[in-house]
Batch of 2 targets.
Target 1
Amino acid sequence: MAVRIVRLGSPRAADEGLRIGTVRRPPRGVPKAEYARRNLYDVWLPNLAPSEVLLKEAQARIASDERAWKSFVRRYRAEMKKPDARALLATLAALSQQTNFSVGCYCENEARCHRSVLRELLAEHGAALA
């Protein structure tokens, strides 16, 4: 059993399980009934996405600016230290010991996406990672 970190919209692995979208906004122009069929997500969990403010500030700069990326990581980690976020991370870590599921985001480059930090946070909370 494990949690897999994925790019939303990518083909699903055979044993991936439930796909959770940790994105701030649902996809534009896609009916809700199509989310799972298009391999986006089965369940939307925006509470683990960067805040709207952090997302807006970071989107244009983090792809090419190392200092902006480090600032984003520091600020996102600070957001994930809040009690609600910590509880969700602990819950997902515990679930990963019992069942397969995945969490993801739309970003093409995981190395410059919050999901890379989310992978680290889940590991720090004891998650079994695929």
Note: The chain has one domain: 3-124.
Target 2
Amino acid sequence: MANLPGSRNISRLKKWQRLFVNRSLNMGNIKAIGFDMDHTLVVYNREAFEALAFRETLKKFIASGYPEELATLAFDPNLLIRGLLVDMDRGNVLKVDGHKYVKVAYHGHVRLAKDVRRSVYNIESFKAGSLLSVDTFFSLSEVQLFTEIVDYMARNPNKIQKSYREVYDDLRRFIDQSHADGSIKTHVLAHPEKFVRKDKYLALTLKQQIEAGKSLFLLTNSSWEYTNALMTYILGDESDEFTDWRQYFEYILVSSGKPGFFTGSQPFYEIQTKTGTVKPLAGPLAERSIYQGGNAKLFQQLTGIRGDEILFVGDHIYGDIIRSKHSVNWRTLLVIEELGTELVKLEALKRALSDIRSKMEEREIADEDLQVLHSKLRWQERLMAHSQANGEVKKAEYIGKEREKLATKSGRLATRLEKLDFEIKTMTEARAARVHPVWGELMKVGLERSRFADQVADYACLYTSAVSNLRFYSPFKRFSSVHDMLAHDF
């Protein structure tokens, strides 16, 4: 048996190994745990995989008549992060805070000036739903290719006689073709060791949950052939007890069509793995059999497991987390892979954050002092006017001299505030650049929460950097949230 973890060692965990809690969750009440596959159980070598998707899609652009010069465009694994928004009509990529305020915007490789960004997006509220949300790693190569073509169009006017929206529509069509014709998956299946990273603790993690009495199921949008190949690669020889990866899961659901799986009513079909034929489901779901399609409500009816008895683990904030919570009230665990490296960087930047906060406290005190001076100046202005009206010349002259002294002091303080503002801005930008040179922290814009962070807080009961971090916690642990507190509670 796998050793069941206890809670006494959790305090010793490094931050990137932890599970973070937004909503209290008693794992003792969880009967079933569902797992997405891509970027959840199957962790890709992102640089290799996204570069492949970039190249294969770019080939289709050129084959369709786009300039052959585009062949020189290169994939940059460090250009984009998740949580961004794409304005497909203007060709801009945006980073937005939790209040829908656009803080950073790029057109190709050119950063938009503050006044331009403000006039386009921030004077009037824009509808985030009308923009493309970069929710999953699969979107990164897509959006980077769009960004590179936008940049090419800006540098080479009239060479591409299409709008940005038309370019993006072509991009979506070519990506769909790449998936349909096997341009991408054929390479992955031929050399999974190049494109997929094995997690040596994944098998142990799954076994711990099984031994604790949890029912595990796989729910993926990938086809059976692709799923079987990759799951065999990551789990097929990881345990003497489980000789086939399917033994870890009671139910295996492929080609599920998420997020439609959570909202639709499509039926289940059983896949005959020996013949490759598909037939409609004619009874209950059989353990270890392979099914495609289906829907969440029917799945609950057929298994007898419902709503908050199910924890679903996935990487897609919308397709996995928001829809499963909204539609069928499943509990949710969001895998944010990039936190694994980002939290290490943030730990090293603790001193920088402390320095910024100290500087902000200094600025707050200086600002309060300045407001007091402004109040005194306004009061003395009224006194001087009153003295002048009453013919009290000497008194008025005295007050005037005192006002000059206060005005000089106020000017010096205002200059100090400008300097503090500049220092805080410079320090904040420098710290953010050490996390990511273009976009900064995933969960922050400057020092404020990003739109992505707000979505995580609202919809993910738990979040972590890897599925295997579950192994550090008891399968019966009560996770308690502190996020129900308001500002006055601290």
Note: The CA atoms of residues 448 and 487 lie 15 Å apart.
